[in-house]
Amino acid sequence: MLKAVIVVLLVATLISLFSGLFFLVHDTGRTSRVVMALFVRVLLSALIVALIGWGFYSGQLQPVLG
Known about the structure:
Elements: H1 2-27, H2 33-58
Helix pairs in contact: 1-2
């Protein structure tokens, strides 16, 4: 379950990345949608890092060794 949530958040991060690129190219500085896309991307990335840390701490995720 945790792995599925992490994958969904990674996909959402990629969507936010490309939406920010789209707004950067098409808005040419007239709106703050690029800043909002950056904020969402940073928030999602922080959530992913926290979930991975929690997954290792709780034992739901195991490191792959060699």
